[in-house]
Structure formats: C-alpha cells, structure tokens
Amino acid sequence: MRASIAAESAGIPSVSLVCEGFVGQGAATGRGLGFDGLALAVMPGHVDAQSSDTMLANLRDVALQQLIDGLTTPA
C-alpha cells in the first residue's frame, strides 16, 4: 500500500494486490493516507494457504484483469 501511495503521489498509476481478507484494511489504509479509492486487485483466499499453481491461476484468472483495469481506468 505504501509503495502504491508513493507512486500515486508522484503521478504514477498503481494497483495494490491484496488477499480478499484484507480488502477493508487496504481501503482504510489508502483513505487514512489521503488516497480514498486507491485501486486494489483482490486475490481469492489467502496466498499462504495456496499452492503455487493455485496462486498463479488466481493471479491469471482473477486478479490480472483487475490490475489492468486499475492501471488503465482514471481514478
């Protein structure tokens, strides 16, 4: 989140990748640091509980489009 905020402060679009259990925390962190609505890409489940294959599949099948949208859609 802090890296995204540094990038956004410099005028560089960013997206933070978070596990679904941390969406609220990510949004609150962005809001608390002056960036309400910071773009998030949400990974299903928690990466520590997934095999590498599952995590990569979730990144490709779920989060990739969110990353693209977050980087290419004006805030």
Task: Walk me through the structure.
Helices cover 52% and strands 11% of the residues. Helix 2 links the parallel strand 1 and strand 2. The mean pLDDT is 93. With 75 residues, the chain is mainly alpha-helical.
The residue-averaged pLDDT reads: 93
Alpha-beta content class: mainly alpha
- State the total count of DSSP E strands: 2
Q: Kindly state the percentage of residues in helix.
A: 40-55%
Order of helices and strands: HEHEH
Give the helix tally. 3
Strand residues, percent:
5-15%
Spatial ordering of strands, largest sheet: 1-2
Any low-confidence stretches, pLDDT <50, length ≥5?
A: none
End-to-end CA span = 16 Å
List the helices and strands and how they pair.
Layout: H1 2-9, E1 16-19, H2 23-32, E2 40-43, H3 52-72
Parallel strand pairs: 1-2
Key phrases:
globular, mainly alpha, single chain, two-stranded parallel ribbon, 75 residues
Q: In summary, what is this structure?
A:
The chain has helices at 2-9, 23-32, 52-72, and strands at residues 16-19, 40-43. It has 75 residues and is mainly α.
